[in-house]
Amino acid sequence: MADEFTTTVYYDDDADESMLDDTTVAVLGYGSQGHAHALNLHESGVDVIVGLRENSSSRADAEDAGLTVKAPDVAAAEADIVKMLVPDTVQPAVYEAISDGLEAGDTLQFAHGFNIHYGQIEPPEDVNVTMVAPKSPGHLVRRTYERGEGVPGLVAIYQDATGDAKEQALAYAKAIGCTRSGVIETTFQEETETDLFGEQAVLCGGVTELMKQGYETLVDAGYSPEMAYFECINEVKLIVDLIYEGGLMEMWNSVSDTAEYGGLTRGEYVVDEDVAREGMEQVLEEVQNGEFAREWISENQTNRPSYKQLRQAEQEHDAEGVGERLREAVSLGQSESDEKENTEEEVTADD
After folding, report:
1. CB neighbour burial string for 184-196, b if at least 16 within 10 angstroms, e if fewer
2. Does an H or E element contain 108, and which?
3. pTM above 0.70?
């Protein structure tokens, strides 16, 4: 059992916002993360330019918020820090469009390490390459900042050309509110590989497959689709909320003794250590050796044929129709935290 941190966590007192004095930040993108970063930086007194193409649907929103908006290449050329907050899949093209504006001593900053770690973007050696990544959807990054709070974040340094890249990154993290909660030091490799593994093996892949298989098992056994949906899909949120609030023991302490004993004794029937670990190790290996990255890059280069087919199949799954009908017929409820926040979150951190 781990009883101490194996990495460094930084807080407000560890960050000096004066590192951003006389510094201009170009925030490229104005989606979930982009709008939060730009507005939080602006309200922290940082000079911000939002980089958006001329026909972007977000231009009016950014301008209405009192932000300066310019074309991405112009914004990058005028900035000292260029923050990449467009989707991973378009970042290489955006970088090509703005790279001529990068000068020695500038900083190219990311919120996810994919394109640096897998060599899709190769910055010059005379610029800093850093990461400041809030571990939260952008709407919460913004909302908690407005309340005088913050969400946890990550900081990583890939290339330190100026000798003070970490200090500058921590100042940025403070300006968007992350050091109020805590910023964990990591590396581009570690952030990228753990993020992809977590998404594929557990959060987005493993959990959804587990829910669908549970739903199908009950329906195939003759139980009503509605009851199967409630038990295997809808109630997952209730359990996850408990784990989020206080860890696994908070969840076990909150469910009935019957549920706890059944879960502790039967869970391994479904997620067997040997089988699950073998599959998870394969997922991790394909992340580590770049196989997944190459597959995803190729998928995007060929207009995403497999992605579209898989997404269509997911949309047509019986559980989706059942869930839609249930949401129209009854209130499926929200956790107490949701009622307080009433958030409209996005799963991805990309804009």
Report:
1. bbbbbeebbbebb
2. strand 107-110
3. yes
Nearest to 236 by CA among 264, 266, 203: 203
Please check whether residue 155 is in contact with residue 184, taking contact to mean a CB–CB distance below 8 angstroms.
yes
d(CA 5, CA 141): 24
Burial class (CB in 10 A: 0-12, 13-18, 19+), 49: buried
Q: What is the pLDDT of residue 350?
A: 39
Q: Which residues are designated catalytic?
A: 112
Return the DSSP state at 105: T
> In a 10 Å sphere around its CB, with 0-12 CB exposed, 13-18 middle and 19+ buried, how is residue 25 labelled?
buried
The gap from C-alpha 252 to its chain's centroid, in whole angstroms, comes to 27
- Are 91 and 41 in contact, with CB atoms under 8 Å apart? no
pLDDT averaged over consecutive 10-residue blocks of the chain (351 residues)? Answer: 77 97 98 97 98 94 97 98 97 97 98 98 98 96 98 98 98 98 98 98 96 97 97 96 96 97 95 90 97 97 97 96 92 49 34 44
Residue-wise DSSP of 120-171: S----TTSEEEEEEESS-HHHHHHHHHTT----EEEEEEE-SSS-HHHHHHH
Q: φ, ψ for residue 209 (rounded to 5)? A: -65, -40
Residue 242, both tokens: 């408990």
**pLDDT confidence of residue 332:** 65
